[in-house]
Amino acid sequence: MKRRHAVLVALVVLFSVYPIVHAATSVRYRYTLTYSFENRGTESIELYEEDIGIPFFIDTEWQTVEIEESDTPRGDTLTDEDGNSWAVMDIPLTLGPGEKVSFTVTYGIESSDKPRPEISISGAGGFDAIPSGLVNAYTDSTETFMSDDPQVSQLAHEMADGESTVLGAVVDMIDWLGANTEYCNFEVPRYPNDTAVDGLGDCDDQSILLVSMCRSLGIPAYLQVGIVIHPSIVASETSWEGHLTDSRDGVGWHAWAMIYVPPWGWLPVDLTLVQEDGGLAVIAGAPEYESHIVPCFDVDRQAYIGDSLDTRRRIIVSDLYVEITDEAERIESSVLGGELYLVIGLGIAVTAAIVLMFVSARRS
Q: What residues does each domain of the chain span?
């Protein structure tokens, strides 16, 4: 059994299993995001631009996301060091004593299923098949992806020992994670060495460890964050010592690893929304090929963990109280096929708050 600390037990997330229709054609969704900030103190509070930033989702041949409505004008557009773009809402940054301000933005999403590649050990390529440009771009040790950490690096090399293909090494690491980690929701993302030691972490924690291990072996990898849409996702939670409340209806935030595996290229690897047995089946069964999962932004070099920790500290020592509401619905589709079962942690509110509000915009 993995070690548990008493303070973490209260944060363990209960799971629910939801049937999701497998959509074979384009689906349209409406996603509405509302932020509310309240100063409950007697002194003015300065909001950061990051606090009031909203994301521009990734546009690909498989999805198009546009801002359809907003009750507040947009100001500057910021781009972080990973190339993600964010709009700063045009509201005053100074919040006086007792003041409250809010804004609502609605996105229109058109999303289609992506072709699912046929993955096999027999067709896998070796480490020399990885383009050198990708190795240079996506294998550095960073504040978040601590591939040079002795624990992380040793673990990766032990798991991949004797493997001649990238796929084989990745499968071995997924198998180890599946046997040695449990889903546990924390109030901020965790460093990979912490997850490796106690075996506890949610979607981004486990993915950050896997990405770090891949980078230790020279395998290009990064984190991708997006939304999962389904009408059965309904919950509300308060965290950050009562300063942060998140409510959601029909949508939850999620994170997964993106790993370069020759000859198939970039593959999504989801460690927490799958019910597959074995690393190869986990890779082949990744739900990110389905239209109900909509990628929002990538994490490669930004201080995803450190920025989150700093912001939590800043908020809980202040008189600022924040409420975030996420709502989504399918507005039209042509659906074929069977059901896909989605496992959602009911504590996904913390992830939503972090990825949307506090890790959002950094000027490049």
A: 6-358
Residue 143, both tokens: 């504040």
Q: Where does residue 79 fall: left (phi above 0), alpha (psi -120 to 50 degrees), or beta otherwise?
A: beta
Report the C-alpha gap between 251 and 233 in whole angstroms: 6
pLDDT at 12 over 90: no
- Which residues neighbour 158 within 8 Å (Cβ) at sequence distance 6 or greater? none
DSSP notation for 271-322: SSS---SSHHHHHHT-GGGSTTEEEEEEESSS-HHHHHHHHHHHHHTSSEEE
CATH hierarchy code of domain 6-358 = 3.10.620.30
Give the CA count within 13 Å in the CB-facing half-sphere of 130: 25
Taking CA atoms, 300 is separated from 55, 140, 338, 354, in Å, by 16, 9, 35, 16
Angle in degrees, CA 64, 54, 293, rounded to 5: 40
At 142-201, the pLDDT tens digits run: 999 999 999 999 999 999 998 999 999 999 999 999 999 999 989 999 999 999 999 999
Distance of CA 240 to the CA centre of its chain: 19
**Residue 266 identity (one-letter amino acid):** W
Q: How far apart are CA 230 and CA 16, in angstroms?
A: 12
